[in-house]
Automatic annotation (TrEMBL):
Keyword annotations from UniProtKB, A to Z: Carotenoid biosynthesis, Oxidoreductase
Domain annotation Amine oxidase: ranges: 13-358
Coiled-coil annotated residue ranges, if any: none
PANTHER family assigned to the protein according to its UniProt record, in alphabetical order: PHYTOENE DESATURASE (PTHR43734:SF1)
UniProt-recorded name of the protein: Phytoene desaturase
Transmembrane portions of the chain: none
Organism, as annotated: Actinomycetospora cinnamomea
Pfam families assigned: Amino_oxidase
Length: 497
């Protein structure tokens, strides 16, 4: 049992999970969150009796969460009610074909054949076979371990693994080897957006994303995924960690090449032997550290591509259709139209015809009565960048784009405009203000580029005693990777302490 002071900056899932793991090891942990409640992007909004998750809507790789709870106290199933989705998502393609993608891998190929024609299932299974090889090549040495030049070198020396990862190919490029049906190509493209990336530039290694979802299943937390953040925060407190909200950190103090503590916006100084930063890496290196510290990492971050953001409608609807799928994706009419969405990431206007994602859980806890539904509608969108890109605070833009998204839904067979009781719009600018993510980038940097997924900021910083955790650090964004990031970081901290 040790008694070292650890300060965690930021109460997103990564910070909470790292705090719980370090508290379970006996360290004195203080977590500071700038918002009035913890959770970061695992947020929730209540409007007129409706409640909406405003962040992730799926749990994949449940074993990662099970390990977090088992390592810190009572098991996951004692704390949260995870329910496996029998239909992971309903996909609608441009010509009107619909696919209910099963939540179990052995049911996927027959469903594809029924929806898209004979042979579609075999094409997808061939791709998943490749993705499985990538998974086995990368998950232990990369996703579950600290990133290092030595680790990448060892991977490069394993010829079969290197051929599977294929860093010289894009995700779309590797998909083209297996998927002759353009609709399957659209399905694969969608997984690049899970990391805020462009499938034409994202590395082939992202093939693990659909593999993980379909191998481990898609799961939902009854009561909303916000409950996951609350459960980990409760675990932190039960282990003796101090969790402070409304406490914004203004700087990380460094002297003699090592971390000394933090300063809050209120002027308080909190000494620490170890600081774990669950803030965006660009914010840590560009705003919290003293000038000149971490210059090389700051230079490298300035040359990376930020991830995309999201434009969101929170719809409280009158009436309820029991056949409404938990998830629905409405694709644009063609791959060319989908490519225009990715081109818009770097443009000055949002995409005119983006894919539309709808999360509509059948959960009584999220609606005011049985004759209603709470829908979270998302389109991937350019980040907020008034100087060089889209200014989401420009007068009228948010409302015009909200109307455009609702019209696209209607064109694609899902017209709910006559049912709307309440409509709340959330733009990338809103996300930036609420979470302090630059531009509202959901995942920090994108995975665009041959080695981008392998070159995120490391969990161990160049400053002795300072560590990074969360979606902008290794191994990346999304609930499972953020939870793995916390596991890696806590292990590094424990070794240091």
């Amino acid at each position: 049992m040790t008694d070292a002071r650890v300060v965690v900056v930021g109460g997103g899932l990564g910070g909470l999970a790292a705090a719980a793991r370090l508290a379970a090891r006996g360290h004195r942990v203080t977590l500071l969150e700038q918002a009035e409640r913890v959770g970061g992007k695992l947020g929730t909004v209540a409007v007129d009796g409706f409640r909406f998750d405003t962040g992730p809507s799926l749990v994949t790789m449940p074993p990662v969460l099970e390990r977090l709870f088992a390592d810190t106290g009572a098991p996951l199933h004692d704390v949260l009610d995870l329910q496996r989705l029998e239909v992971a998502a309903r996909y609608r393609f441009g010509e009107g074909a619909e696919l209910d993608l099963p939540g179990r891998r052995d049911e996927i190929a027959p469903a594809l054949d029924r929806a898209l024609g004979a042979g579609a299932g075999a094409q997808w299974e061939a791709f998943l076979g490749h993705a499985e090889r990538v998974w086995h090549a990368t998950h232990e040495p990369f996703l579950e371990s600290p990133v290092s030049a030595g680790g990448l070198a060892r991977l490069s020396l394993r010829v079969r693994d290197l051929a599977a990862v294929a860093p010289w190919r894009s995700l779309r490029g590797v998909g083209a080897r297996y998927l002759r049906d353009e609709r399957l190509g659209l399905l694969l493209d969608r997984y690049a957006t899970y990391s805020g990336s462009d499938p034409r530039r994202a590395p082939a290694a992202l093939a693990v994303v659909p593999y993980v979802e379909q191998e481990f299943g898609s799961w939902y937390v009854r009561g909303g995924l916000r409950r996951l953040a609350e459960a980990v925060a409760d675990r932190c407190r039960a282990l003796g960690a101090e969790v402070r909200t409304g406490a914004r950190v203004a700087g990380i103090d460094v002297a003699g090449g090592r971390v000394r503590g933090i300063r809050t916006a209120d002027g308080d100084a909190l000494p620490a032997e170890v600081v774990v930063a669950n803030a965006d890496a660009a914010t840590v290196y560009g705003g919290l550290l003293p000038a000149g510290v971490g210059r090389a990492t700051r230079w490298r971050l300035a040359r990376t591509t930020p991830s995309s953001s999201g434009f969101v409608l929170l719809l409280g609807l009158d009436g309820r259709d029991p056949a409404t799928p938990h998830h629905r994706v409405l694709f644009p009419p063609s791959r060319a139209a989908y490519d225009a969405e990715f081109d818009a990431y770097r443009g000055r206007e949002p995409a005119p015809s983006p894919a539309v994602y709808v999360h509509a859980p059948d959960d009584p806890a999220l609606r005011p009565g049985d004759a209603s539904e709470a829908w979270f509608v998302l389109v991937t969108a350019p980040r907020h960048d008034p100087g060089r890109g889209v200014d989401w605070d420009a007068p009228g833009l948010a409302q015009r784009y909200a109307e455009r998204v609702l019209a696209l839904m209607a064109e694609r067979g899902v017209d709910v405009r006559h049912r709307i009781r309440s409509c709340t719009v959330r733009t990338p600018a809103d996300l930036e203000r609420e979470t302090l993510s630059p531009g509202g980038s959901i995942y920090g940097t994108s995975s665009d580029g041959a080695l981008a997924a392998f070159l995120r900021p490391a969990n161990r910083s160049p400053v002795d005693g300072l560590y990074l955790v969360g979606g902008s650090a290794h191994p990346g964004g999304g609930l499972p990777l953020v939870t793995l990031s916390a596991e890696i970081t806590a292990g590094l901290c424990a070794a240091r302490l």
